[in-house]
Amino acid sequence: AVFNPLSTKRLLTMQYVETIKASNVEVIEAAGLDRHIIADRICDLTMRQVFVYGFFHGDPHPGNVHVLPGNVICFLDFGMMGFLDQQTRRSFASFVMGIAQRNERITAAALLKMSSAELDPRRPHFEADVADFMHRHFYRPVGEMVFSKVIDHLFHLTSKHGLTLPSDIYMVLKSLSLMEALVSALDPNYDIVAKSRPLLREAKLRLMHP
């Protein structure tokens, strides 16, 4: 909450929240909180922000994701927020679903829908490059995935084929990557792919509803 009577044009006075950093596993356990529930809620909240509402926290690093009593998640610092319109949300959901299903055709088609281009790329070569992108970054342990390399590879892939992605797509990837690292630290056995499938289906159904 913002305290307007105590704020000015140069000073923002906000509510103090007594929390535990979501990355502070030892303190979380000492407080009797449930790491699995916390991981599940962080994953659920982040994905709903992106895929259901299209308005998401653009920088959910451990310093900005805290835990309140009762395993309640508390997001801080909303200075960096992203927005996806319905069409981009639908295409991005298909993009992620294609990666989860290891289907380069779905992934490539979704990437084309998210992008702008003067000419459509040659589909066989484009799909082959998308398949290489998927296998190089996503089908490996979470700890081995380097987000900067994912972004760099995606940038070169789209540039190579004359495509331009909306800037908020890169922010989405950053947000999901930070969420994945935090969730994996809380619960190393948490299956983010299994969690994503029903949420993605729900999001796509909502977006298709008249």
Descriptive key words:
210 residues, mainly alpha, three-stranded antiparallel β-sheet, two-stranded antiparallel sheet, 8 helices, 5 strands, 56% helix
What does this structure look like?
The protein has helices at residues 25-30, 35-53, 86-100, 104-114, 123-137, 147-160, 167-186, 192-208; strands at 20-21, 55-57, 65-68, 72-75, 81-83. It has 210 residues and is mainly alpha-helical. Helix 2 (35-53) packs antiparallel against helix 7 (167-186) and helix 5 runs antiparallel to helix 6.
* Biggest sheet overview: 3 strands, antiparallel
Strand line-up of the largest beta sheet: 1-3-4
Helicity range of the residues? 55-70%
Q: Number of helix segments?
A: 8
Layout of helices and strands:
Elements: E1 20-21, H1 25-30, H2 35-53, E2 55-57, E3 65-68, E4 72-75, E5 81-83, H3 86-100, H4 104-114, H5 123-137, H6 147-160, H7 167-186, H8 192-208
Antiparallel strand pairs: 1-3, 2-5, 3-4
Helix pairs in contact: 2-7, 2-8, 3-4, 3-8, 4-5, 5-6
Summarize the structure.
With 210 residues, the chain is mainly α. Helix content is 56%, strand content 8%.
